[in-house]
Input
Amino acid sequence: MRNRSLLVGSVSIGGNSPVRVESMLKVPLCRLEEGMKQLDDLARSGCELVRVAFPSASDQENFSRLVKDSPVSVMADIHFDPSLAEAAIAAGCRAIRINPGNMGSPEKLDRLIAMSKDEGVVIRIGANSGSVSPRQLKEAGGDRPAALALAVEEQLRALEDRGFQDILLSAKSTDVRETVAANKILFDKYGKIYPFHIGITESGSGIAGVSKSSVGLGILLSMGIGDTIRVSLSDNPEIEVAAGFEILKSLGLRQRGAEIISCPTCGRKKLDVVAVLPEIRPLLEGLPDGFKVAIMGCEVNGPQEARHADVGVAGSYSEAIFFKKGEVVDRRPLSELVKGMSLLLEPYRLKS
Output
C-alpha cells in the first residue's frame, strides 16, 4: 500500500485504489434541478467525485437535497465559514475542502475536526499559486514551488496537531513546472502517508487547456504522484472527465470503454478516416474496457501496423479490409464498411 486509504461514500482514494477522476459542479446550488441534471450527466461520464461550491447558508436546503440524491460522491467546497462545513457534514457529505486557516479561530477548527472524526469525513487541504503569501515566498527564498509547498504544509500542521489524518493533499498552479516542482517537494515528505489530488488550475479551454493539463498531469502521474485528478477546463464538466480518463488511459493507469486507434492519414489513404470515425464511434458502446479498434487509411498502416488492436479496418484500392489481431478476416466494398464493422464487433459486446 503506497499511502493512507480514504473513503468518500463508496469511493476509495489512495492506498491500492485506482487513480480517481473528478470534476466540479458548474451550476450554483440555487439552480438545483439544473445541478442534478449535470450530476446525472457526470455520473454517466464516469465521474467518481464531484466538488460542489457551498458558499452560503441560504443554500443549505438545496445542498442537503443534492447530497442525498447525487449519483456521484460529493465534496463540499468551503472557503471561509466553518458553520457551512459543519452544515455540509450534518447533511451527510463525507468530504470537505477547507483552508484550516480560514476557519475563524482555533476553537472553531477544533470543533470542525472533532465533528469530522466522529462522522468519518475526509478533508482536502491545499494551496494554489494565488494563495501564496509574501511571507511564505520570503521564507522559501523566493522559490515559488517551495513557497507553494510551504503553504500546504502549514495547513497540514493545523490538522496533524489536532490528531487528524484523513487528509487529501493538493498543490496547484496554472504553471505546469511550478505545480510539478511543488508536488515533488510534498510527495518526497508525505507521499507514503497521504493521498494527493492533482491538477493544473485555470488551464484554459479547448486544445490549449487539455494540452496543458495533460502535460502537467502526465508528468506527475509518471512520477507516481496523484490519487485523484481533475482536468480544470473552461468547458462542460463532462469534457473534464473524458479528458481525465484519456490521460489515465494513455499511461496505462485506467481503462474506460473501448479505445479507437486511428492513423493521422497521408497521401496513401484509401479510406477517409476523418469522415468514417463519427460513424464508427457509436458502435463502440457496450464493448469491454480497454478493447482496441483500429481505423487505418491504407493497407500499409492496416493489419500489420495495427496488429495489436483487437479488431480493425483498413482501406484498400477498392474495398475495406477487416482484421483481428492483424489477421484479415473479411473484405467488403467501402460502402459496407460500417455494416462490416458492426458485424465484426457484435461478438465482443458485453451482455447487459
